[in-house]
Design a protein that fits this description.
mainly alpha; MetI-like fold; 2 domains
Length: 294
């Protein structure tokens, strides 16, 4: 337990060190970088370092304590960003659950039937090459025409479906790799006991797949957030952090630090989703016996 705490403390410390390093590099580039951008090997890739394009770190952070608008009754921007992030979090959570169910089911089917793995896996890879920003309006349009047994497709569900679209792939691939990682000797032992495929799946393959599934679920959780935010931006769905990014970007000329408050909120949302998966792993697997080697 002490070793786990030390490991968690080390990772947490390295995370904050990385954040501090990024902040230092940001401020350093503002000092040495060209204000109007520049070219590298003839290609214009160096970003502008002026205050409009790259506000100071303290300006972006201090903006959270200021009102969103200049009106007297305007709410503080940290509250608005937090509210938008919570809305997007709920949509991403729905998408993550849908993507997890689909991904694990596909992995189990591909493990059971080799022909399905050879025939389905290439299409799963191809599906991730579809531009999400172009797919989002189509999903909204298709969903608006669906009505099954009196159920009307809500607009927010389209964003969750797009989140599931990005979440299911890493979960399916990671789970598939984990299910196939069970030792051959253990599989032969289960066969000698006349265990069914279902018993082997739940008592051997899934426990062996946990070390592979946890990182895959972290990627899936972050992917669900990306899908939801992109869907909110491309479809104009109100209430979420993606909508705030659009609205604040329109004001970037006069208030450049404002847009970064929403961007940081989206980044924090992705980290929070991945952190929930890590926390669930710690809580659910804390009593799992350690493997011993001889």
């Amino acid at each position: 337990m002490n070793q786990q705490l030390r490991r968690a403390a080390y990772r947490t410390g390295m995370f904050f060190v990385s954040i501090a390093l990024v902040a230092v590099l940001w401020e350093l580039y503002k000092v040495v970088g060209p204000e109007k951008g520049g070219k590298l090997f003839g290609v214009a890739i160096l970003p502008r370092s002026n205050d409009t394009a790259m506000p100071h770190i303290w300006e972006m952070l201090s903006r959270y304590a200021e009102p969103e608008m200049r009106s007297p009754n305007s709410k503080l921007i940290w509250f608005v960003v937090l509210k938008g992030a919570f809305y997007s979090f709920r949509l991403a959570l729905v998408g993550f659950v849908i993507g997890s169910i689909i991904g694990v089911a596909l992995a189990a089917l591909m493990t059971r039937f080799k022909t399905m793995e050879r025939g389905l896996l290439p299409y799963l890879v191809i599906s991730q090459t579809v531009p999400l920003i172009a797919l989002a309006p189509l999903v909204v349009s298709w969903g608006g025409k669906l009505e099954i047994f009196g159920f009307t497709w809500p607009r927010w569900l389209s964003a969750s479906v797009l989140g599931a679209f990005l979440a299911f792939f890493p979960i399916a691939v990671g789970t598939l790799r984990g299910l196939k990682s069970a030792p051959a000797a253990s599989l032969e032992l289960m066969d000698s006991y006349a265990a069914s495929w279902k018993q082997t799946l739940f008592k051997l393959r899934f426990p062996a797949a946990i070390p592979y599934m946890v990182p895959a679920f972290k990627l899936g959780a972050s992917g669900a957030v990306i899908g939801v935010v992109v869907a909110e931006i491309s479809t104009g769905l109100k209430g979420g952090i993606g909508r705030l990014i659009i609205e604040y970007a329109r004001q970037a000329t006069g208030d450049p630090a404002k847009v970064f408050t929403a961007v940081f909120g989206a980044a924090g949302l992705g980290l929070g989703m991945a952190g929930l998966v890590a926390l669930a792993d710690v809580l659910l697997m804390r009593n799992r016996p350690k493997e011993t080697t001889t």
